[in-house]
Amino acid sequence: MADSFRKRALGTGVVSRDSSSFHPICGKGARAKLLATLFLTLLGLGGCRTAPRNDAQPDIIKRIVMKKWTIEPNRIEVPQGGEVELVVTTTDVEHGIAIPGLDIREPVQPGKETVIRFKANTAGTYPMSCSILCGTGHKQMTGVIVVTAAVPAASH
Ligand SMILES: [Cu+2]
User: Is 50 exceeded by the pLDDT of residue 5?
Assistant: First the structure.
């Protein structure tokens, strides 16, 4: 008798809990799903914004160190057709890396890596220089990117 009463009470309890929380749970679930979708969308957008401008995986990674008043190394050779990644840092003040022939101009800040990707389409010598006035030796901060012509494939 007591058992059956308890069961019924529990049953009622469960039913009433279900019925009372049915709509809020649905609403919450939908909202959570919407929020999750928004969150993932934002993540996706964030990824796009911070992605390098060339999505291809680099074939060649070159590190460049800028400091008063040199660019090291001041000559970088890359093969024509290569996907190139330049990782530029500064050991002192803010500098800027400019390679006008490759349409590259980016600030280089202390404590940060400036990562630049490009495809070396056309063979040639591309002057690079510091693009941010950094002191008396600023104009000495020069170098070249040399894109070496692709060797024609040997005939069979
Ligand atoms: Cu400079």
Answer: no
